[in-house]
């Protein structure tokens, strides 16, 4: 164990890098209108500003996670920062549709490297109670970052320009690179080579899967392509001696529950973060700025609760805290599904947001901890990659489901109510995964 001050700097690097990823994943939600106006984008083209990022982010995650294991976490992390920072600069400078879409795709590759590598660095650096605390902050950042991003996106879109949200990543990336060189240990990784068949089959399979969810056409062929290449990928991982995603990661009951639960939980939350700002702008007359600020009840409560997670985990256990968190999130979502303009913002959205914020604060950190539980050090990057795959793919699937449900109804309020209720159903399934997989798995290991 190193000195506490060193841990503080490393934690800063981890959390700030993760926040940048979350910022660029969500800031688009409140900035889309301004982006479309500035670059003359139609709705179909505008959707690819977000989809291009999701496509490469989801497709390269397993590669990014395993690369850190093999080639050294610091080296791969620094490469990710360079790609992400350069991609952010190009997005901010975009003058037409092809430039912003390609730049967002390039930026997504950087995110796919950074997301699992930061979590793997955390696992390498911290032990015992310090690891529990660090994971608590990391998991909390997933919820806080997404919520704060909506506020930041609204501020920039309304008062400045949407480009600022991307330009600000450039100096932050440079600063993170400096801190990484100064404070992160230079590791050489493991002896071995990259599983190229597994790499390319996972890349094609994951990209096709994401496209089958978010794409505009040829969704069925993309889905069939995903099944084919993911089947090849799983077979390759079974037979190779140096897999990019060791299948032993799925032999642990607690980790399986965490992967399934995180997939379902993020599906509900991503849909909620996407459709709720639109409802507030269209039904309550909020500006983009006010729609972002309206998430403060969730964000503030989430932040306060997240600070207590390490202490509460020691008291109730990771699984117990997770069950409480998911249940509270589901209650808040079902309450919000009763919203009508007559009920208004404070009782129809803000009050249930408080419950959702408490539940989110209790849930995301334990999900992260369970997803990397009982892994050997050589698998930390791969396990972190799977955690982030479930986060990203789950969010994409859930967003697609909730938006589809919303579109089945003619009125926006009715569509919102049923979509949010569907999100509550996904959370109930996540709760079952926690009760029947994570909690028993945690008890078996103790």
UniProtKB/TrEMBL annotation:
It comes from the Bacteria. The chain crosses the membrane at residues 9-33, 45-64, 76-95, 101-123, 135-160, 166-184, 196-214, 220-235, 256-275, 287-307, 319-339, 345-373, 385-409, 415-439. Residues 10-442 form the Major facilitator superfamily (MFS) profile domain. It is a multi-pass membrane protein. Keywords: Cell membrane, Membrane, Transmembrane, Transmembrane helix, Transport. Its main location: membrane. GO terms for cellular component: plasma membrane. Gene3D superfamilies: MFS general substrate transporter like domains, Multidrug resistance protein D. InterPro entries: MFS, MFS_dom, MFS_trans_sf. It is found in: Cell membrane. GO terms for molecular function: transmembrane transporter activity. This is Drug H(+) antiporter. It comes from Levilactobacillus parabrevis ATCC 53295.
């Amino acid at each position: 164990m190193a000195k506490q001050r060193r841990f503080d700097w490393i934690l800063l690097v981890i959390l700030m890098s993760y926040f940048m990823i979350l910022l660029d994943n969500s800031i688009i939600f409140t900035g889309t209108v301004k982006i479309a106006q500035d670059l003359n984008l139609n709705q179909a083209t505008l959707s690819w500003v977000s989809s291009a990022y999701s496509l490469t982010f989801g497709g390269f995650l397993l590669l990014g996670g395993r690369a850190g294991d093999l080639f050294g976490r610091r080296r791969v992390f620094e490469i990710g920062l360079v790609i992400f920072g350069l991609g952010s600069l190009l997005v901010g400078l975009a003058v037409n549709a092809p430039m912003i879409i390609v730049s967002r795709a390039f930026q997504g590759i950087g995110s796919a490297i950074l997301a699992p590598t930061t979590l793997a660095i955390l696992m390498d650096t911290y032990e015992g109670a310090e690891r529990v605390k660090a994971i608590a902050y990391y998991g909390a950042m997933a919820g806080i970052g997404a919520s704060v991003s909506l506020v930041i996106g609204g501020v920039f879109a309304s008062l400045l320009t949407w480009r600022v949200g991307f330009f600000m990543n450039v100096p932050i990336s440079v600063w993170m690179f400096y801190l990484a060189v100064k404070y992160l240990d230079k590791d050489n990784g493991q002896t071995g080579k990259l599983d190229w068949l597994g790499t390319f089959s996972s890349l094609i399979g994951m990209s096709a899967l994401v496209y089958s969810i978010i794409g505009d056409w040829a969704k069925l062929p993309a889905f069939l392509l995903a099944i084919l290449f993911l089947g090849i990928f799983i077979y390759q991982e079974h037979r190779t001696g140096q897999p990019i995603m060791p299948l032993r990661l799925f032999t642990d009951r607690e980790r399986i529950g965490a992967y399934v639960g995180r997939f379902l939980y993020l599906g509900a939350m991503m849909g909620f973060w996407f459709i709720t700002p639109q409802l507030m702008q269209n039904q309550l007359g909020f500006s983009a700025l006010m729609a972002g600020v309206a998430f403060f009840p969730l964000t503030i409560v989430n932040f306060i609760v997240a600070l207590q997670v390490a202490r509460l985990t020691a008291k109730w256990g990771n699984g117990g805290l997770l069950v409480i968190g998911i249940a509270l999130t589901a209650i808040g979502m079902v309450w919000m599904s009763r919203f009508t303009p007559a009920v208004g913002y404070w009782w129809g959205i803000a009050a249930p947001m408080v419950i959702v914020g408490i539940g989110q604060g209790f849930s995301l950190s334990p999900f992260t901890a369970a997803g990397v539980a009982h892994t050997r050090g050589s698998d930390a990057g791969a396990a972190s990659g799977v955690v982030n795959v479930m986060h990203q793919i789950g969010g994409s699937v859930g967003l697609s489901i909730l938006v589809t449900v919303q579109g089945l109804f003619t009125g926006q309020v009715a569509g919102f109510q049923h979509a949010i209720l569907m999100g509550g159903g996904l959370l109930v399934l996540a709760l079952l995964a926690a009760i029947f997989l994570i909690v028993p798995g945690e008890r078996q290991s103790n």
